[in-house]
Amino acid sequence: MTALSPTLSAESGPTPSDPGLDRREAFLIDLAREAGRLAQRAFSGAETLAYRMKGPQDFLTVTDAAVEELVQNRLQSAFPEDGFLGEESGGVLSPQIWVVDPIDGTANFARRIPHYCVSIAFVSHGVIALGAVFDPAHDELYFARQGRGATRNGKPVRVSDVRDAHAACVELGWSTRVPNSDYLDALAGILKAGANARRGATGALGLAYVADGRSDGYAELHMQPWDCLAGLLLVEEAGGRVSPYLENGGLAKGGPVLAVAPGAADLMQSATGIALK
Ligand code: LIP
């Protein structure tokens, strides 16, 4: 059993005033920016961004690995009692764990499309306690702490007040982990309801945009935990509604994700078949 840091409660997860979480919050904000700067230096570098394919439509660049190594080393030095789960290096689940996607939107990054981010979440006893999504190309740091709201560069963000499907614009994520027919069925449902649908190829940033009111919802029929945990906290803390991802075992096996502004809840639940909490 991993020894808990003295101030994170052993049973109920994070509590509102929690010096251990305060330290992790401050550390995370600096770390997300440091990791993003490393990614952006590579992105802006003169050399072509070499990449290889992990599988169909699954890109991997040397920068993914370099950013994840930086983040893992910093976290293990600062919080050796915490676990680590990264997209590239994996990890072992533990009661307190950092969940990291070093570059979310790798397909964009590899083709020099400036729409990618670093996504880092801290999960304590089944609760997403901290989440950071940093878009270094636009210098936008989204951050949330459970129970304390969500911000972009320190300013509060809120989900949209959308009410009419014909004015709604949502994002539907895609990957080869789900049959294309299921993706197309969900897309058809969204369009039939009169809403517009985008796909930006970075689920973390897509979720952050819901929290920021730039998008009215994000859905994906299967997401990995490193792609979505920080974003799910952002949306909840910004007044949105989310699906029970962790409750359904998402940390261990991934699963469907839905995160919406309240006015888009019915539209997106019926189009995607994903239930909200
Ligand atoms: C991406 C996810 C996104 C999904 C993409 C891709 P990556 O992660 O954030 O939700 O739709 O297919 O998996 O591979 O860029 O870290």
Structure description:
- There is one protein chain.
- With 277 residues, this protein is α+β, with helices and mostly antiparallel strands.
- It has helices at residues 19-44, 62-78, 106-110, 180-192, 203-211, 225-237, 250-253, 265-272, and strands spanning 51-55, 58-61, 83-86, 90-91, 96-104, 117-124, 127-135, 140-145, 150-152, 155-156, 169-172, 196-198, 217-223, 241-242, 255-260.
- It folds into 2 domains: 19-156, Fructose-1,6-Bisphosphatase, Chain A, domain 1 (2-Layer Sandwich), CATH 3.30.540.10; 165-272, D-Maltodextrin-Binding Protein, domain 2 (3-Layer(aba) Sandwich).
- Helix content is 34%, strand content 27%.
- Helix 1 packs antiparallel against helix 2 (62-78).
- It is globular.
- It starts with 18 loop residues before the first helix and ends in a 5-residue tail after the last helix.
- The relative contact order is 0.14.
- L-MYO-inositol-1-phosphate (LIP) is lined by residues 87, 101, 104-107, 173-175, 201-204, 220, 223, 227.
Quick recap of the structure?
The chain is an alpha+beta fold and 277 residues long.
Q: Tally the structural domains.
A: 2
| Number of beta strands | 15
Uncertain regions spanning at least 5 consecutive residues: 1-12
Write out the strand line-up for the largest beta sheet, numbering strands in chain order.
4-3-5-6-7-8-9-10
The CATH superfamily of the largest domain appears as Fructose-1,6-Bisphosphatase, subunit A, domain 1
- Annotated CATH architecture of the largest domain: 2-Layer Sandwich
The quaternary organization reads as single chain
Give the distance, in angstroms, between the N- and C-terminal Cα atoms.
30 Å
Could you say what the CATH topology of the largest domain is called? Fructose-1,6-Bisphosphatase, Chain A, domain 1
CATH class of the largest domain: Alpha Beta
Q: How much helical structure, as a percent, in the residues?
A: 25-40%
Radius of gyration from the alpha-carbon trace, in angstroms: 18 Å
Task: Give a quick account of the main beta sheet: strands, pairing sense, barrel closure.
Answer: 8 strands, mixed
Arithmetic mean pLDDT: 92
Strand content: 25-35%
